[in-house]
Amino acid sequence: MNRPVGAEHGARAVLGSALSVLATWASLLALGGLIDGRRWLVVACLAVLVVASAAAVARALTRVWWVPTAAGAAVALVGLVLRYGAPPGRPQFLPDLDAVGRAWALAREGVRVVNDSFVPMPDVRPGEMLVVVGAVSVVLLVDLAVLGLRVPAVAGLALLTLWVPAVVLGFPAGGGPVFWTAVAYLALLAYGAAPHHARAGRARRAVTAGAGAALLATVGLVAGPVLMDVPGWASVALPQLGSTPVGPLELSDELDLRESLGARSGQEVLRYRVTDPTAPDEGAAGDDGAAAAAAVDGVVPAPTASGPATRAVDARLVGPLRAFTLATFDGRTWERDEPEELRPWRAGTLLASDGTTAGALPDPSAGTLAQVDVTVGALRERRLPVSTHPRTVDVAGPWGWDQDRDEVVGERSTDRDLTYSMLVQVPDLTPDALRETPVGTPPDASLYVTVPDTEHREDVQRLVRDLTADDETPYAQAMTLQSWFRSASNFTYDTRVPPARTSDAVWDFLESRRGYCVQFATAMTVMSRTLGIPARVGVGFLPGERTEDGTYVVTGRLAHAWPELYFEGRGWVRFEPTPASQTGPPPVWADPFTGVQGSGGPPEEMEPGQAAPVPGASAGSTAPPASAPEAAEDGAPWAAVAVTVGLAVLVLGGAAAGVLLARRRRAEPPTDPEQAWARLRRDLARLGLTWSDAATPRGALREVQRALLLRTETLLDGPALSAFERLVDAVESRRYAPTPPAVGPAALDEWVTQVRDRAGELVSDRPRAGVGPSAPRAGS
Fold first, then answer.
1. Could you tell me how far CA 586 lies from the centroid of its own chain?
2. Percent of the chain whose predicted confidence (pLDDT) is above 70
């Protein structure tokens, strides 16, 4: 079988294989932000090199376009089975069915690891196998597109599949991989556009390659920002709280009570450590260690004869980390207000909502001090998550303090690996102290007592009056509302929002009695305002899950909202109306069991069938929950990845199928002289030998000879010239003779092949004038 015109062999094929390998290696770098370590990258690169080498060797031995791909796929399959299906502890040199079964089981385990892991995924053998499978598949597709089908542009779709996880999850590896992948792809395009010989069509092909590269760059610059603004590509917004980890988590500028919480993201957004700055050293914990262990279980040691109980310095003491607050509510949606003025602060001084504390130095006599060191993960937020208590903040970069809202605001969003530290002064706030404290007047006080004028405003006010009829102080009223919301006999925690029945979202929640943190926080805030208590909503993250090394990991599923009420001389004080099954015990000053059974108190009522309080939602958990409701949802993002990859594969397959059909049509012998003439013209045009549409068949022969003479100083002769002349006679007879003689397809195909092959040899070899008996000199 004759190979298609332009099929790659020889030195060009070796160069094409090398470029395919380099392009695949560059695309593999895109996974660097998703997987820890580098062993997976080394193994994948070696596998790509071995498979591509096998395809190159097969290409040198055959001229059938699909054989190299089949040979590479066979080598890849055998290699995967031998590496990942070998019995534990010993190598395997020949594959068998048992090895295939073990390799398949490991691949399934890899899928489970991917679904259960946070980003970055650990560099483990099952995950490595999936990466290797993807890498060798991509290099085979690239090799097929570039060398087998001669359509290098299609190779970009194969390379894109390695970028899909990073793009969808929002964890790019950086500018380096993007640059090298783009360079490799442009090199493949240039390789495909380069002529097979020194001169033929050099200018035209160079212009085509340059224009294509410029077009790709322009499309990337124009479409990139637009695509990144499409929801689901760049951010995950509350109240979805990370419906899938499709990008760095960004807390939304507004909270809509009619939107569902949905599945929550398991990606790590913060990691921090809490230490006692007054302890002599971390190792000499002694009784403090016991106190910390007790606090993990929600119990604080009882007071002793020598004085008050020592509070364990841990994440629960520090409390949730608040990013921002919300004050403007229209009956359905909370909107974030931009700060009017940002102030710098003096290093080492406290930032606090209480004016008497703000600007002072931390004072151990005014509360318990806790050192908090934070490292940012997949969080892109202009507000820095800080403790709700007075705290110092040490952070690099252009950050300012909004004193009215007690928020630390930056000029740009947080980046991965940003670190900052806080010295938190946790006040010794008790229920008895708050019972004697009146409400205060915060800055912009009218903003925090405004109740939206909805159709059920009076119904809400009537309900509040009935609930708090026996309460004599603002604190007692707040506690009544909190306890009412936290009771499982009154409300059910549910991330699904029932359909709206009225224009008043709070009233709908009070009627349905089902909702999540946004509904609970909003309802208590609005109801507190009807009592004249300044109230707002705080948005941030629950303390997180404690790891074995003592650090706390905060994931997207711990994003949370809570109400804050303003008391004179105390500033904004947090309450927790969301049920204990999601948040753990309330803060000590808002715990009705404080002084009865430790500050944590007994677990609140839980709804029927509800699991025990989720460890991830309290400060002191030592391990992730075994059966958290969201655990089964971690695999959701990979469904989106699978769909995207599937679409890319379908597009690539469709393009390949179209090219194959076109090549098959070209491979079929021509059935009449006109078809043979059109094929010869197309084949010679690829060699830079063309003629005008006005030329007759004999004129076309003369133009081809003239072009060959100018470029190679040689003419067609012998069988090739005879074949050209016979084809010219057949075309002229077909066009002008009344009864043209019949010419068989085999003869037509042979004439075209002889002319094309000889012209290709002359153009490629460029023999010097005077070589051979029929090689006339230029101008002869």
1. 35
2. 74
